[in-house]
Amino acid sequence: MSMQLEHSYQSLETAKRPTLANRFSASILSGSVLRAIGTWTRKVRRLSIKQKICYGYAVTIAIAMVGTGAGLEIGDRYTRQAREQSLRSHEEQRLLLDLQHTVLAVRAQQEGLSASDGDDLERVEDLLAQLHDLAAALPPISGAVTPAQIAQLRAAYDPNPGNGDLATRIPPIEQLYQAIDRQIEAAKTQERLANETFTKAESLRQQITGWSMLVSAAIAVGLAVYTSRAIAHPIEWIVHVARRASQQANYKLRAPEIGEDEIGLLATSLNQLISTVQQQIQAIQTTQAQLIQSEKMSSLGQMVAGLAHEINNPVSFISGNIEHSSHYIQDLLGLVLLYQQEYPEPNPTIARRIEEIDLDFLMTDLPGLLCSMRSGSERIRQLVMALRNFCRLDEAEVKRVNLHDGIDSTLFLLDRRLKDKIKIVKKYGDLPAIECAPAQLNQVFMHLLDNAIDALEGIGTDESSRKMPTIVIQTRLVEDNRIQVKITDNGPGIDPEIQAKIFDPFFTTKAPGKGTGLGLAICYQIAQQHGGTLEFSSQLGRGSKFCLSLPLPERG
């Protein structure tokens, strides 16, 4: 009976403890929970730091409270079961001892061959009935007295002394006494096991409470470590990036954007600030370069205007006097011829002088000399006009001009670099006048042609012997009421790796001191200011093509 009660308690304890662990493990390993972990992780990343801290400590406190409550509840349940089992076993012992004493009294009466006392017989019957009611009323417990055992006791007892002789009645009473004695021992064992169950229930309650507190403390420590790392580590990165960006003026650095909390927003804001500073600095540098370029053009325009005025006066004087000198010389030469006709035989002194000055050569070369002087003065006049057209003082003023004049003026100024080394092919279309800032567009033509000449000058001798460096300038009117100016060269082309940066300010492939990297950037902005576009295409070994597209004014 004792072994049965011990096995019953162990079965009950092992059935209670692993049940919770098994349920928890099964819930963790289930597919739905595993899928929910990913969603939960993403939601946690979106939480703010305040929410993470609050929720984390709320979970810690909840685990402590739930663990403590669960420990108290489980311990109280086992304690109640143990207490009920102890009270029941104690009541059974009391009834069985009382029954045993009564049976002893009955047996003594039967051995004394005296009639049984009616009160004792009723007492035995009443005790058996109480035991039966107690066993039937309470829930069955392993090792306790069962209603079937009480029925066997009642069957072994015969309350009618007149039935049978003494020899046949004493053994059943003895058997009843022995059965009661066994039940008393079983009740004592049950009470002992109930006390052990009570002790183990207290220990289990303390263990559950202690483990819940340990788990809560571990979670609190882990939460503190995670919070410190989640806050301190990204902030260290942000401080490091901000310090390097400010000290090294390296505005290409970016802070890692981890999470969507305040730290992530701080990193995003810092990156946006660095990007904005980079754009502002680049814009300031571009504006400064444009201002410098504008100041240069303005100063050059003022200087050219003054020089043009100073040069035009003597050039006009020379040009006018050349014409008069030509007439005078023709008259003098006519007079000399007339003298030779009238006096074919000059005196020796005149003949000797004619021979010294080579009069025939002078009469032949002097008209050519005058023609050369006339061409030189015309060249000077054209150069001054080209400079005045290229460097206009009214560059911000919009005028209706012919683009071909600006292109020709630019080519005239670049004639020294072109000479016979580079072939210029003009394919001019029939273009109407366009409203623009002439000086700015002339600046675009200058940059594009200058870059084309630089590219062609870089061609090696082997390649030069194979093909003639050529620049093709094509203008045309397209269907969508726009003018296109294409400048194509057959140079080495542009590397595809740098084509995306070709219009970036301060980007240049030229040697230091030969370029600022602002030429094409300024050309691109000038095209945009005129409502047009500047595009290019290039292939290595086949040259480059730049296309300037400008809108025509709408006709009213």
From TrEMBL:
It holds the Pfam family HATPase_c. One of its GO terms (cellular component) is membrane. The lineage of its organism: Bacteria, Bacillati, Cyanobacteriota, Cyanophyceae, Oscillatoriophycideae. The chain crosses the membrane at residues 53-72. SUPFAM superfamilies: ATPase domain of HSP90 chaperone/DNA topoisomerase II/histidine kinase, HAMP domain-like, Homodimeric domain of signal transducing histidine kinase. It catalyses: ATP + protein L-histidine = ADP + protein N-phospho-L-histidine. Its main location: membrane. One of its GO terms (molecular function) is phosphorelay sensor kinase activity. Its EC number is 2.7.13.3. SMART domains: HAMP, HATPase_c. Keywords: Kinase, Membrane, Phosphoprotein, Transferase, Transmembrane, Transmembrane helix, Two-component regulatory system. It comes from Oxynema aestuarii AP17. It is found in: Membrane. It is an enzyme of class 2 (transferase). Residues 306-554 form the Histidine kinase domain. InterPro entries: HAMP_dom, HATPase_C_sf, HATPase_dom, His_kinase_dom, HisK_dim/P_dom, HisK_dim/P_sf, Sig_transdc_His_kin-like_C. This is histidine kinase. Residues 229-282 form the HAMP domain.
